[in-house]
Amino acid sequence: MAAGAPVGAGGTSHIYQGSGWKLLAPSWIIIGIFLLAPVVMMAVYSFLTKEFRGGVIWEFSLDAYDQFFFDRGLFGDEPPTLEWTYIGIFWRSIWQAGLATITCLLIGFPTAWFIATRNPESRSIWLFLVTIPYWVNLLIRTVSMKFLIRDTGPLNEFLLALHVIEEPLGLINTNFAVQLGLFYSYLPFMVLPIYAAVERYDFSLSEAAADLYAGTWTILWLVILPVVRPGIIAGCILVFVPSLGAFLAPDLLGGAKTFMIGSLIEEQFKGNAGNWPFGAAASMILLTIVMCVLLVYARNQNKAEVR
Amino acid sequence: MRKLLASTAVALLALTAGAHAEGKLSIYHWFEYIPQELLDKFAEEYDVEVTMDTFDSNEALLASLKAGKLGSYDVAVPGDYMVKIMRDEGMLDTFEASELPNFGNIEDRWVDVEFDPGRKSSIPYQWGSTSFSVNKVLYKGELDSLSLIFDAPEELKGKINVLDTAGETLTLASLYLGIPQCTSDREHLKELNALVQKAKADWASFGSDVAKDVLVSGDAAAGMIWSGFSAKARSEGANIEYVFPKEGMIVWMDNVVLLKDAPNRENALKFMNFLLEPENAAAVTNYAQYTAGVKGVGEFLKPEVANSPESNPPADQKGVFVEACPQDVQVLYDAIWTNLKK
C-alpha cells in the first residue's frame, strides 16, 4: 500500500540477512494452516460428488460447476441452456458491493481529508471517533441499525411527530437499507487508508500548482489524486471485498428475500439443500473474481511504480 | 524452545484430562428453548457442569454434526423428521427403557412414534404447531385460511414475514394447494412453484429467528410462526391471533436424542430422565409455551400457558408432520426454494 519509498531490494539491514526464512516461518505456518489448507480443501470439495443432506462422496465430479453454469429446467431433463440464476445472484452482489464502495468513497474521501488537515492533536481524536463503532460486534451494529430505521423505530417516530412525513418511510427490507448497512459497516475501512495517504501529502504541491494557475479541480485531479491514489484503491478493496460476501446486512436489513453470494453459499452448508460441492464451487468462483480484482490492482501498482 | 514445547504439551495434557473428568454434559439445543434455571437445577442436583450450544434450524443441526461435531455433544434436540434422518445416518445411540426410570412418564401416544418406533434413541421434549399469526388491529377479516399468507388481502400486502426454512414454508404452501408432500408429480410441483413465486411479491421478509420480533415491533402485520413463539409474542405485547387454518397446519415434536459417541453417556441419560420428571417438563413448557409430551405436568403449569389459545387447537383441526423426502424429490423442492430466492 505504501506509495513511493523504495524499501525492497538491498534496503533490508544486513543484520537480518540470511535469517529471513526463520523469521518468516511463523507467518508461513499460520498462512499454510489457516489460509492455504482451507482453500485447497474447498477446491478439492468443489470437484467431488455430493452426498445427500450434506457431506461428500470421494468421486470426481463436475456436477457442482455444471449446476452453476447450465440450466436443465426444474426437472433436469431439458436441453442445457445458460443458467442465469446464480450469475444473477453474483451480479446482484457485485452491484451491491460496488455501489457501497462508491458511497463509502464519496463520503470517506472528504472525511479522511478533513481529519488529515486538522492539527496533529485533534487528528487522533477524530481517528478515535471513527474507530469507536468497531468496539461493538458487527451483528449488534446491524441489528441496532434495524431498530433505528424500522417503521416503528425512532427515526420514523421522530419524523412523524414533527409532521415531516405522514406515513413511515418504509426503509426496512429494501435495497436502500442494505446499502445503508454496508456503508455504515465498512466506512472506516475507506477512511483509514485514505487518511494515511493524505497525511503524507505535501501541501506545498497544491500551493505550487495554484501558483501555476491550476484551478481547484485541476489540482484535485492532477496533483492530489495521483499521490493519494494507492490509499483510495486500498480503501476500495477493503470495502468491496467484504461487502461482496456480506450476509448480515442483506439478511437483517434487506429481509433475506433474495440470495446474496454469502447467503447462497451458507444455504448449501446449513440449509435444506446440503450441497457441499456446490457451496465449495460457488466459493471458488467468488474467490476467482476477488483474485482478478486484486491482480488488476497489483498490475496497476507495478505500472505506477515503474513510472 | 524445546523446554517451552514440553511445558506447553504438559499444560495441554492437563487441559484434556480436565475435559474428560467426570461430571460434564454438553447439550446442542435450539435457541431460546430451555430456561437457564432448569439447567442450573440439573447441574446442582447431579453435580454436573453443563455447557450448551444453540442452532436455529434442524438442517443447521445436521450440517454441524456432519461437519465433525458428532462426538463432542451428548444430547441434541432435533424435530420429528430430523430424528428419522439422523437415525438413518447412524448419528444416534440407543438406550433401553430400563435405563430411564421415568420412561413410563412419556405420554402413551408419543411412545411408538413413526420417527423412532418404541423410543430407542429419543424422548419427547415439546410439541407444537407451525402456522401463522395476524395483527388484529390491521386486519379485521376472518382468520381461518392460509390464503392470508399465500394470496394476501390488501391490508396485509407487503407486511408478511415467512419462515426462512424451505421445509416449513413449502409444506404450508402445499397444504394451501391441497397437494401431498414430497410429491414428484410435475403438475403439482409447477403449481407449488407458481404459487410461492406469486405470493412472494406480497412478502416483506424471510426470517425464522426474528419471527416473534417482527410481530412484536409491528414490522410485520402477519407472520408464519411456531405456536409457542406466537404465545410469547402475544405476552410481549403484540396484538395478534394465532390462526388455525382450515387447510391444515404443521404439527411437530422436538425430541431429546442420545447422540452417537456421546462423551458423557451416563450424564446424558440422567439429563433425559430429569426432563421426563413432570415438574421439569412443565418448567420447559412454562418457558417455551409449547406442550410437553409427558404425563402429570398439568399441576405444574401456569394457567395462562395451559390455557393459551395457541396450544389448544379446535378438536377437528387438521395437522400434518413434515415429511423427509427422498433425494430425487428433495432436489426438486430445493430448486423451487432457490428459484424463489434468486
Layout: helices, strands, pairs:
The complex is a heterodimer of chains A (307) and B (342).
Chain A: H1 20-46, E1 48-50, E2 56-60, H2 63-69, E3 70-71, E4 81-82, H3 84-116, H4 120-131, H5 138-149, H6 154-161, H7 175-199, H8 204-211, H9 216-245, H10 248-252, H11 261-270, H12 276-306
Antiparallel strand pairs in A: 1-2, 3-4
Chain B: H1 2-19, E1 24-30, H2 36-46, E2 49-55, H3 58-69, E3 75-76, H4 80-88, E4 122-135, H5 147-150, E5 160-162, H6 166-177, H7 186-200, E6 203-206, H8 211-217, E7 222-226, H9 227-235, E8 240-243, E9 249-258, H10 265-275, H11 278-288, H12 303-306, E10 319-320, H13 327-341
Parallel strand pairs in B: 1-2, 1-3, 5-6, 5-7, 9-10
Antiparallel strand pairs in B: 3-9, 4-7, 4-8, 4-9
Keywords (chain A): Cell membrane, Membrane, Transmembrane, Transmembrane helix, Transport
Transmembrane segments (chain A): 28-48, 94-116, 122-140, 176-198, 276-298
Subcellular location (chain A): Cell membrane
Keywords:
heterodimer; A: 307 residues; mainly alpha; MetI-like fold; 12 helices; 68% helix; B: 342 residues; alpha/beta; D-Maltodextrin-Binding Protein, domain 2; 2 domains; 10-stranded mixed beta sheet; 13 helices; 10 strands; disordered N terminus
Kindly describe this structure:
The complex is a heterodimer of chains A (307) and B (342). Chain A is mainly α. Chain A has a single domain, classed as MetI-like fold (Orthogonal Bundle). Helix content of chain A is 68%, strand content 4%. Chain A is built from twelve helices and four strands. Chain A has helices at 20-46, 63-69, 84-116, 120-131, 138-149, 154-161, 175-199, 204-211, 216-245, 248-252, 261-270, 276-306, and strands spanning 48-50, 56-60, 70-71, 81-82. Chain A has a two-stranded antiparallel ribbon with strand order 1-2. A two-stranded antiparallel sheet of chain A has the order 3-4. The longest helix of chain A is centred in the first third of the chain and has 33 residues, at 84-116. The relative contact order of chain A is 0.13. Mean pLDDT of chain A is 86; it is low at 1-10. Chain B is an alpha/beta fold and 342 residues long. Chain B folds into two domains: 2-126 and 253-309, Periplasmic binding protein-like II (D-Maltodextrin-Binding Protein, domain 2, 3-Layer(aba) Sandwich); 128-251 and 313-341, 3-Layer(aba) Sandwich (D-Maltodextrin-Binding Protein, domain 2), CATH 3.40.190. Chain B is 40% helix and 17% strand. Chain B has helices at residues 2-19, 36-46, 58-69, 80-88, 147-150, 166-177, 186-200, 211-217, 227-235, 265-275, 278-288, 303-306, 327-341; strands spanning 24-30, 49-55, 75-76, 122-135, 160-162, 203-206, 222-226, 240-243, 249-258, 319-320. The longest helix of chain B is centred in the first third of the chain and has 18 residues, at 2-19. The N and C termini of chain B lie far apart (54 Å). Mean pLDDT of chain B is 91; it is low at 1-21. The chains are: A mainly alpha (307), B alpha/beta (342). Chains A and B meet through helix 3 and helix 11 of A and helix 3, helix 7, strand 6 and helix 13 of B. Chain A: It holds the Pfam family BPD_transp_1. Chain A: Residues 90-297 form the ABC transmembrane type-1 domain. Chain A: Belongs to the binding-protein-dependent transport system permease family. CysTW subfamily. Chain A: Keywords: Cell membrane, Membrane, Transmembrane, Transmembrane helix, Transport. Chain A: InterPro entries: MetI-like, MetI-like_sf.
